[in-house]
Amino acid sequence: MCITKEIEITDIKKLRQIAHLLAKKSLTIGHGIYLLQGELGTGKTTFVRFFVEMLPGSEQAEVSSPSFNLFNIYPTSPEIIHVDLYRCVDLEEEVLEYLSSNDNIVFVEWCERLPKIYWPLEHILVEFKFKGNRRFMEIKLKGAKFFPLIDIIGEKNT
Ligand SMILES: Nc1ncnc2c1ncn2[C@@H]1O[C@H](COP(=O)(O)OP(=O)(O)O)[C@@H](O)[C@H]1O
Ligand SMILES: [Mg+2]
Questions:
Q1: Which of 23, 50, 66, 150 would be a feasible disulfide site paired with 54, CB 3.0-4.6 Å?
Q2: Could you read off the pLDDT of 47-76 as tens digits, one per residue?
């Protein structure tokens, strides 16, 4: 089963509010693979930055798109793995290990570029999109362990 909800991101404050709520709840779950989709400039990195700022240790973490590396690791508690596949040619073994472990909170920008066989069965798919000039975030929870996030994103079963 999958739970889907679309939220209008009326302004950047709204994005921050949603990211903070998801971060708090993810801390209680202790784990999460966030697959982020959306064109350049739709807010993926900004979402990760807002999420990270809720975590202990975030003052030591400077969130930016990993450009030289395929991924960044932030020294928060828990540690955050931030992957960006925009320029990815070869997937590193380490990234695949993070995706298949149940111990980390992982963000993958440009998950469209990750072959589906590597998508963890249970994940949170977040699509950032425009309709005209309005911004939306579609959140899909795949896997019962992520259903507690439902409190934040509301209910709509598919
Ligand atoms: N909801 C929003 N409302 C207004 N500006 C936003 C919003 N989300 C992101 N931005 C701005 O858009 C720019 C690009 O965002 P970014 O998060 O880097 O996009 P992406 O990682 O998807 O390429 C940034 O300057 C950011 O401040
Ligand atoms: Mg980005």
A1: 23
A2: 999 999 999 999 998 999 887 778 999 999
Number of domains in the chain: 1
Atom of ligand 1 nearest to the CA of 65: 21
Nearest CA to ligand 1 atom 10: 43
Closest CA to 3 of 152, 136, 145, 142: 142
Cα 40 to ligand 1 centre (Å) = 9
Give the C-alpha separation, 121 to 123, whole Å.
Answer: 6
Q: Is residue 156 part of a domain?
A: no
Q: What pTM, to 2 d.p., does this model score?
A: 0.94
Which atom, in ligand 1's list, is nearest to the CA of 49?
A: 17
pLDDT in tens, 3-33: 999 999 999 999 999 999 999 999 999 999 9
> What is the domain extent for residue 26?
2-151
State whether the beta carbon of 96 lies less than 6 angstroms from ligand 1. Answer: no
